[in-house]
Amino acid sequence: MIGKILGNRYKILEKISGGGMALVYKAQCNLLNRIVAIKILKSEFAEDEDFVRRFRREAQAAASLSHPNIVGIYDVGEEDGLYYIVMEYVEGNTLKDLIRQKAPLPLTEVIEMGVQICDALECAHKNMIVHRDIKSQNIMITSDGRVKVTDFGIARATGGSTITNTGNMFGSVQYFSPEQARSDTVDERSDLYSVGVVLYEAFTGKLPFNGETPVSVALKQIQEQPELISNIISGFPKQLEVIVQKCLAKSPDDRYQNAEALKNDLKQALLSAEVVSFKPDNIEHTLVMDNIANNPTSFEINSAASKKKRPKNVLKGIGIIAFFVLLFAVFSYLGAALARRYLEVPETIVPNVIGMQEEEAIQKLKEHNLDYNIAGRVFDTAPAGQVIDQDPKGDQRVKTNRPPIDLIISKGSKAGTVPSIIGRTEQEGIALLENNGFEPGRIIREYSNEI
User: Are residue 276 and residue 364 in the same domain, yes or no?
Assistant: First the structure.
């Protein structure tokens, strides 16, 4: 790929990064003599006509966004089966990289980034574009501290009516809103939930929810509450805790209703003396020093006590030692017996039940002496009652007394009310339809004397 010229103008210079759906290259635009970034779809997506069609349309819609905090999209093209987006080249690090290197980040630094992320989303939402994949990997930070939100086109291109496809999760489930995890219709408040996850991660250095599989993480997004940041970082400002918790509310109605409202609260937090002066490292240091200060003579006390100790009766000491040796032997024997009992539990191979109807899948698991748990039912393009994911996956060897096999069952396609798009522009109409879970059909253009 290095040295290849796309569209008779973009010369590929080097590979920058690669993700789940695309590879990113640094390139030279020979026409305008500038450096650009080119995102090229991976072959498995390029062969999906429906995906490519959505990808091109949404990339073109995202290209209409012009904002200093959004990575600009310059061009969209196809050549020799390669579908690509030409974007603004940004020198800097992703927020994810900064978190890995420096977490937890200073509060004021995170707040200032949050304000800029809100500015970017406010612009997108006003243009009827929901990002749907806000995460720290999609947020670039330049050397002068400017935030650049990227991947609008690809995020919307994958934003269909489901989050599952033959048992695989689309998107970054650690940042999913509960409605995304349920395959419900999403709007701008879903993006604000994801911003809350990003803030939580930047403040603490950890994600609010993790799990062994995408399904288990998605269920936590729906059902569980994240650990309070104040439990992770002692003395964390209450004002910021409230902001993050409001972003992470399970119901969209309980969250910030738009990016501007969240931005205003973040700006207000920057004026708080508690927030500005907060330093976690200093607090930890103070706690240690306080402990030493409160116990200034502990060494002297212990030293004095040790001087007062006298040799104990030898026979009494031997008796105590013998007792503990016997106790250790008894517990070792019981532990070994229990271990043998566990190890003798029969093993079986977990059957792959994805694609089966619920009753058939349950029967199949019972034939392998495995219990089951219906972990969730979500809207999906698969027929109602069909298993669309399982945890653990099929073909794994497990013991028959293991916890139940989690199953995700399809509720079928979700019915919805078709929104009115009369009077909207073509771009706004398409965005409104897709945000409500509908696929635009054939577009017929006619002359009108009224519009």
Answer: no
Q: Which of 88, 108, 129 is the last residue of a domain?
A: 88
Degrees to nearest 5, angle at CA 396 with 393 and 398: 115
Domain carrying residue 213: 92-282
Count Cα atoms within 13 angstroms, Cβ side, for 167. 14
List, by residue number, the catalytic residues: 133
Question: Which residues lie below 8 Å from residue 315, measured CB to CB, with a gap of 6+?
Answer: none
Q: Which helix (H) or strand (E) holds 163?
A: none
pLDDT in tens, 333-379: 666 665 555 556 688 899 999 999 999 999 999 998 899 988 888 88
pTM of the model: 0.68
Q: Which of 55, 88, 121 is the last residue of a domain?
A: 88
Q: Tell me the C-alpha distance between 450 and 294, whole Å.
A: 83
Give the residues across from 27 on adjacent strands.
12, 36
Provide CB contacts within 8 A for 152, sequence distance 6+.
58, 62, 65, 70, 73, 124, 129, 131
Packed helices 95-102 and 188-204: angle between N→C axes, nearest 10 degrees: 20
